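Researcher: Going back to the complex we discussed earlier. I've cleaned up the inputs and rechecked each line, so this should be the final set. Can you rerun the prediction on the complete assembly and write out the structure?
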Amino acid sequence: MNAAAFAAWIRHTAELVSADAGRLTRLDAAIGDGDHGHNLDRGFRAAAEALPDGVPPGKVLMAAGRSIVSRTGGASGPLYGTALRRAGKAVGDAGDVGAAGLGAALRAALDGVQELGKAAEGDKTMVDALAPAVAAYEAALADGSGLADCVRAAADAAAKGADDTVLMQARKGRASYLGPRSVGHMDPGAASTALVLRGLADVAGEG
Amino acid sequence: MVGIVIISHSRTLAEGAAEVARTMGVGKAVVEPAGGDAEGRLGTSIDLVEQAVAAANDGDGVVLLADIGSSVLTAKTLIEDAGDDVLLADAPLVEGSVAAASMAAAGAGLAAVHAAAESARDHRKAG
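Model: Rerun complete. Updated structure for the full complex:
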C-alpha cells in the first residue's frame, strides 16, 4: 500500500463512520455516555480533510492520528489517535508498505492502545476487536497470504470480536460502573474498530 | 515555580477546582484550568491542555491532574510528546490539585509536587 492507498483508507473510513454514526452512538447510549458515533465522525472527518500530500505512508498515518486526537473529543480520540500514530511510526519512511510491514503496523497500533488504555482482552473494549484482528492478520501472513487476504482476515476477526463483546461484562470506562448490567450490549469501541478495519479491507481489496 | 494544570470534561469544573487550588496555594501557585472541548461543551481538547501546559510552565515543570476517562487518556497522550518536565498525577482531581498547589507554593520541585498530589489518594473521608 502506498501513501495514496492509506489516504484512501482514512477517507473511506470517515464515510463508513459517518454512515454508521447513529448506530455507534446508540450502542454508546446503552452503556457509555452516548457520543461515540458523533465524536468519531468528527475525528475521522477532520483527519480526512487534513491529509497531507507528497509524504510517505507513515506520515499520512501520523497526521491522521494527530487530527483524531485533536478533534474527536472523547476517549476514542486519544485511543484511535495513538493507534494511528504508532502504526505510522512502525511504518517509518517506507514509500510502499507490504504485507509484513502492515502487520507490524497493526501490532504497534494494538500495543499503543493497550499501553494507553490498560485494557486486556475480555474487558469489553476496542481491544476485543483489535487484538483478534491482529492475531488473524499474523496467522494469515504466516500462511503465506498476500496483503489483501491478510486484511480481510483481520476485518472478519474484528467483526466477530465486536460481536463477542455483547456477552462480556465491562471492566473499563463508564460501562464498568454498570457491572453485570453492561452485559447484553455490544461495546461501541469494538464496533467502530470493526468498521475501521472493514474500511481497510475495502481499500486493500481494490489495490 | 512548578505549575499545575487541571484537566476536566467540564470547563466550569476545571475552573472551580483551579479556584480552590489557587486559594490553597495562597495565591502564589500557578494553576491553569483546561476544561471542556474546543467549543466549551463537555469533552476534552488536547489543544486546550497544551495551551494550559505552556501557560503553566515557567521552566520548573508542570503536574497534570485529570478527572476521568478521556481527560486521563488525553493527559497521557500529551505526555508521550512532551518533555520529561510534564507529569500526570495518579490522584483525585480536587484533593490532588489542592495538595499540588500547596506544595508548589512552598517552592518545592517537580518530583515533590507530583508526590504531594499522589499522596492525596490516601486521604480518607469516612471510616
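Model: Worth noting: The interface with chain B takes residues 39, 69-70, 73-79, 81-82, 116-117, 173-174 of chain A (CB under 8 Å).
Researcher: Good, that matches what I expected from the previous run.
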